[in-house]
Structures are given as structure tokens and as C-alpha cells.
Target: WD repeat-containing protein 46
Amino acid sequence: MGEVETAPKPGTDVPPKKDKLQTKRKKLRRYWEEETVPTTDGASPGPPCNKKNRERSPQRPKNAHILKKSRISKKPQVPKKPREWKNPESQRSLSGAQDPFPGPAPVPVEVVQKFCRIDKSRKLPRSKAKTRSRLEVAEAEEEETSIKAARSELLLAEEPGFLEGEDGEDTAKICQADIVEAVDIASAAKHFDLNLRQFGPYRLNYSRTGRHLAFGGRRGHVAALDWVTKKLMCEINVMEAVRDIRFLHSEALLAVAQNRWLHIYDNQGIELHCIRRCDRVTQLEFLPFHFLLATASETGFLTYLDVSVGKIVAALNARAGRLDVMSQNPYNAVIHLGHSNGTVSLWSPAMKEPLAKILCHRGGVRAVAVDSTGTYMATSGLDHQLKIFDLRGTYQPLSTRTLPHGAGHLAFSQRGLLVAGMGDVVNIWAGQGKASPPSLEQPYLTHRLSGPVHGLQFCPFEDVLGVGHSGGITSMLVPGAGEPNFDGLESNPYRSRKQRQEWEVKALLEKVPAELICLDPRALAEVDVISLEQGKKERIERLGYDPEAKAPFQPKPKQKGRSSTASLVKRKRKVMDEEHRDKVRQSLQQQQQQQHKEAKAKSTGARPSALDRFVR
Model:
């Protein structure tokens, strides 16, 4: 018998003594065991016996796969409880207060429509149920994506700048010195003048990221620099006239149109290539998504050079004499050429003839520029007129202004500002926003330079306008010109060398073929029904029969005398009658739809006449 524990005397707090052996025999509790009251023996119950487990476990089939037992003991899997749906209104914060605005924040419809790429006014085509369900799923995903993009727009903290006068003051009278004095130190450092009268006049070009600047003088001076930090990358003299200069897909490569041939340099000033097939080039344009360098020459040829493989994709004869005016449409990569007869022609490397011709001026065209959305085109001619055209299919002038000297150079900014260089004066016009055309009534800014203008370009993602003139290079501050937010995966001004290399590989993999350049890029996602029918017709004429035609019905033979000639003919006639009924039913439906359209047109048309009774 065990020892009997004695109760403590009243008034004392000493607990009763326990047997030392009993405390030593006490085992530790396993993690699968629940905390229980110790037994009289003082030991906690252990795991159940293996024999009982063996008897109770069901027998496995012979071919069943048995997993090997791990030496490390695993925690037994407890079945998860089903997740209970909770009303968001009933959820409270840590402080206990209820959310006054439960659920996701509403998104304005106007912001969602800006990111939507599907036209919901067009009904889905009549097709199979499986195809229709896929189209509906694609529309739902597109709508969800546009809502997410609209919500993420809240993260774009930067806002475009602007310039306002006090008490109705004309902003055109505000000079650059006043703007530099009013802005912060970092913005004021972006305004500078490079006095290079020895080798002028100059043409200039900014890289796609807006971080680097390249310029070339008519007397052979070529230089590239990081204009933000003023760090010079390279500076050479090619000992030949430089007519135009362009950055390629990155700031590491530079194309220079010299007096005789086209040359390619790197950012250290080392000549990499001399392309002799592009001779006497006057203008350069680079298409970044197609890796195409477009050149216009004195001989009247428009040449497309694929810089990724080093081959000439197309050489098109414009048949309009010397080509001095060229610009590109950033929306669809179509090249706009200005001619001496007052017309502007639109070109694609996939066509040997121009896509369209627009009569813009009574005299020769001096300059052409297209905005970033591809909606508006600005032209200036020898008749001293500046016109803005609508490129959305009408090609009609929206506004016209007569200038005292005529504009020799034009350029659009990312936010829709239009700049015109007239002699040694630069005028800038602004509109209501990015999607609206600039108003030509009153200039937004005006600046006078030390020499005649020879080149203009707005810096991407900066409120800066670069002007090349006979006296050098001038960097002007134009508030509201640049896009305040940039895409870090596409054009990152702060990217490192490794990031630039990775972006270049990705851009080469996503290169758009030159054959896809057309006026309406949205047409690429549609089916060309006319070409499809024409190809089908030519295939039938070549083969002599229609390979896609439905085979005539052939009844299957049956047994027990049911495949007689009479029964076969009867079954064939039954199928033919069903097909005939379907055709008649479809023709009746088409006639009813046509009559409904005609009646609707009559109801919305002119007033009824007494002679309508004779119409059959």
C-alpha cells in the first residue's frame, strides 16, 4: 500500500510532501497527447498499443503504393474547418470601430473607360456556344483589368505642371529668366545654353528615356552626354557635314547621317558600321517597337533598315524629288513625308505605294509633326500657314493660323503642346489636355534665340524643350510639356546597365514585324473577310473542286433487308428536304430583317407623301 499523505496543519502554507520516486517516474507529455489529470500511479497514459492499431487498421490492396515512413515524427493532419463567410459590414477594426465605407472603393466610370480596350457597343458575332463563351470570358477579364489599372492610377503621385499668369497676365510675356527664378534649384539646372558657334547649326535628339542628349553640327561636330548630370559620353569630329542624328533603341548606339553615307557609332564615339546603301541621307527616324531606322534621301528614296539584323527591309521610291521633310506617327509607326507640291504622303514598308495622300498647302511643305496619340498632325508650308489635321479617317484641317514668317520646324510634346520654330523665335501653343488639339489663337510661351532654329524636340518625361540653332544648343523650361509618370519596365530614366541589357533582350523578343505597319493597328485583331473569300475562290479554281464543301449524305447500310434501293433513296430525299427547309427558313428571316430596317428608315426619314401608295 502506498503512503498516506498527511494534511497540512492550519495556518501553514507548506504543501504536502510527495514521494521522490513518484516525481522521477513522471513522464513528459507528448505533443499528440492532451493534458490529463495524473493517475494514482503518477504516470500519464502513453500512445495506444501497436497490436490494437494493427487489428483495427483496414487491409491494403496488394498493388497499392505504400509510402515509406519517415523517421521524423509528423504531426497528425487535422481536417480543416470550412471557411465561414463573413459579412464585411460586421468586420471591425482592432479598436472596435466599424468601417463606415465597407468593401472596395468605387472607381469613376470615366477613368475605367480610359483603360478599356474593348468596344462594348459592338455586339458579339453569332458563333458557336464555345467560341461565344470564350469571348465573354475575355471581355470579363478585360473589364477587370481596366478596373485594376484605374485603381493603380492612384499610385501615380506626380502631376503635370502648368503656367498661369496673375490677374489675366499673358503667359507668352513670361521669359525664361522669370521661370528659372521661380522654380526649385533642381529644375532651374535643366535650363542651360551651350555656346557652339564654331560648328553650328546643330541638330539634336533625346533618347527614349529622356536622360541622354545627342547633337551634331553641320561642320562635323558630334557629341553625346547625360544632360541631367552634364557628364560627357563622347565627342568627336567626323570631318564631314552632319545632316541629322538619332539614338537607336538605346543610348549605346547612335546613327549619324553624314554628307555621303550613313554611319553607326557607339556611346564611346567608335564607328561600328558604314551603310553605303543609304547615301545622301537628309532625315532620320527610328521606330523603337519595330527596330527600324527610316531614312529619307536627296534621291527621293525612303529606306527602312532593320538594325537588329542589319538588313534593308524596304527601299521605296516616293517619286516626288528631294525628301527634306519627314516625321513618324508614334501610334501606328507610319512615316509622313512632306513634298514640294504641298502634299503629305503616308508610307508603310509593307506597301510600295503610299497609304494615303493629303493636300495640305498651296506651296511646298516645310515641316510635319504628329502628336503622341496619333490623332492630330501639324503642318507648315511656304504659304506661311500652320494647319492642324485630324488623322482619324477624315484628314480635314481643324484649325489654321497664318504666321508672319512661316514655321520651318514643328514638334509635339507628350502632353500635346505644339512648338514651332520661325527664324530665331520659338512659339509654343497649348490645348485643353493631352487628347485635345492645341489652340492656335494665343501662344502659351515665346522665346527668342541667338540664331535661326535648326532642330526642335521635347525631352520625354521632362518639362524641357531642346532647341538646336546656329549658336549651339538651348534647353528651355516649358511647364506642362512632359508626362509626369513613366513606366519603369519600358522607359526608365534611372535604370542601370544590367537593367538596360535585360530590357534590350526583352524588346528584341517582342519586336513587331515590319509587315504589320498599317494605318489602323486595331484592324490586325479582326478577320480579313474579303481576302479570306478571295483566297478560297482562287483555291477552288486551282483544284477544280471545293475541299471544304460538305460531302453529300450517304446513308449507312442496315441489315435485315432495310438497305434496299427504295429505302436508301427515301432516306436521302428526307435529308435533302430538311436542308432545303433550313435554307428557306434562313432566307425568310433575312427578308424580315431587311423589311424591318426599311420600315425603320422610313419612320426616321422624311414626312410621308401621297405617292407612297404606289410604292410596292
User: Anything to note?
Assistant: The mean pLDDT is 83. DSSP finds nine helices and 28 strands in the chain. Residues 589 and 595 are 10 Å apart (CA to CA). The longest strand covers residues 271-279.
